[in-house]
Amino acid sequence: MANPYEEVKRLFDLAKKNPNNTKYIETAREIMKKQRKALPKELSDKFCKKCNIYFIPGKNCKVRISNKSVFIHCEKCNTLKRIKA
Ligand SMILES: [Zn+2]
Question: What's the whole-model pTM score?
Answer without folding.
Answer: 0.90
